[in-house]
Amino acid sequence: MSNLYKEITINGLWKQNTGVVQLLGLCPTLAVTTSAVNGLSLGFATALVMAAANGSVSPVRQFVPNEIRVPVFILVIATLVTVIDLSINAFAHPLHKVLGIFIPLIVVNCIVLARVESFAAKNPPVPSMLDGFMMGSGLMLVLGLLGAIRELVGKGTILSGLDLVFGPAAHPFMWTSTDYHGLLLAVLPPGAFLGLGSLIAIRNWIEIRKAAKTSAPSPSLKPALSH
Amino acid sequence: MHLHNHVSLDIKNNMQDTMFKHASKTAITLVAFAFLGTAMLAYVFDITRAPIEASEKEARLALFKQILPESTYDNDLLKDNVEIVPNEQLGNRQPTVANIAKSNGKTAGVILEAVAHDGYSGDIKLLIAIRADGSISGVRVLAHKETPGLGDYIDITHGNWIKLFNDESVNKTPIEQWHVKKDGGKFDYVAGATITPRAVVKAVLKALQFYEANKQTLFAIAKVE
C-alpha cells in the first residue's frame, strides 16, 4: 500500500508533472506566473481544489451513472472552487485581491477534471485525495519556479508580494535589486513561454541523462500508473 | 404470426420500461447532486458573508488611511458618503461614492474616485483625497493595466511617483503647469512611459476642478458646514 502512495507522489511531482509533462492547465501557468508568490499561491489553491475534488468524487463514484459523470464532476468541482474562493476572500482578503480573478478559472483548468475522471472515478478516496494533492503540488512547483525566474529576470526581485500573503512580517524574506531594472520581456507573456520552454527542456535533459546512465529503457517511458 | 407480433410488442414495452427507469434514475442523480451543491454553496456563502464584508471595509479604510491621516477626521468615512452619478470630470461611467471626512462637525476633506480613460492600456482608477481647503492630501492608484515594469510606477507598490501630488492644488500650481515636464508642466515622469503619467495628471486636475465646482453641493448633501 505504501508503495502505491509513493508511486502516486512521484507521478504527481515528477513523472506525470502537470506543468512540464502533461502540459495541462497552461492558461494559469502562463498568465499568473509573473512572480513566485502569485504562482505558488495559485498552485496551492489548485492543489487544494484537486485534493477536495478527487476526495469528494471518489466515495460517490458508484452512484454516478456513466452517462452523466462529466456534468456531475464539473458540478462538484465548480462547487468546491466557489467554496474555496469565498473562504480565501473571507479569511485571506489581501491574497484574494492578488489571485481573485484567477481562482474561478480553476474550474475550467482541465487538469482538475482530468484527474477526477482518470483517477478518482476508479480509485478509493484516500489514494484519490493524495493523487489530487500531489498532481496539484507538481503544478505548484512549476508555477512557483516559473514565477521566480520571471520576476528575477524581469523585475530583479525575489518573493515580491510575500507580505500580501503573510503580512508585514514577511519583509525580511523579500529582496529587491537596487541596480538591476529588469528585462521587461520576462514579465510579458512571451517570457512565460520562454520560461516554461526552458523548464521543460531542463526536465527532459535530466530524464535523458538518467536514461543514458541505466542501460535499461528509461523509466519515464513506462506507461503512467493511471492511464 | 399473430403470436409472434404479440411477443415482440411485449419485449418492446419492457425495453421502454427499463429505458424510462434508467433515464429517471440518471435525472434524479443529477438533480440530487445539483441540490447538494446548491445547499453547500448557500451555507458557505452565508457564513463567509460577514467576514468578507468586514475585510473589504478594513481594506478600504486602510487605503483611506494612506491618503488621509486618521487624525484629521473623527467620523465614519464609509457611512458618510455621497453618491455621484456618471460625471465627465471624474470619468466614472458607473455611479461612485465620495466619502466625506468631518472633524467636530466641520468639513475636513473628501475622498473621490476618478477614472482616467486615456492611459496606455485600459482605464486607470484613482482614489484622491482632497482637504477642505482644496489641497491634495494624497492620491493612490486603485487599479490599472499599464505595462508591468514600465508604466506601473504610478502604483505605490512600484514607486513613489504618485506622492508628487501630495499638497498640490490649483492655487499652488497654475492650471497651465498641470502637465508632465515633457509637455511643459511641472510633473516628473519616467522616460519611455509618458502616456501613463500624462493621463494621471490630467485626471487628478479634473478631479480637483470637480471638487471646486461641486463642494457646496457635496457638503450640503452630507450635512456639514
Give the structural class of chain A.
Answer: mainly alpha
The most extensive interface, with participating residues per chain, is:
A-B, 29 and 23 residues
Low-confidence stretches of chain B: none
Please report which band the strand proportion of chain A falls in: under 5%, 5-15%, 15-25%, 25-35%, 35-45% or over 45%: under 5%
Main sheet characteristics of chain A: 2 strands, antiparallel
Question: What is the H-and-E element order of chain B?
Answer: HEEEEEH
Strand content of chain B: 15-25%
* Total domains of chain B: 2
The number of distinct helices of chain A, counting runs of at least 4 residues, comes to 11
* Mean pLDDT across every amino acid position of chain A: 84
Q: In whole angstroms, how far apart are the ends of chain B?
A: 102 Å
Radius of gyration computed on alpha carbons of chain B? 30 Å
The radius of gyration computed from the alpha-carbon positions of chain A, rounded to a whole number of angstroms, is 19 Å
Secondary structure tally: strands of chain B: 5
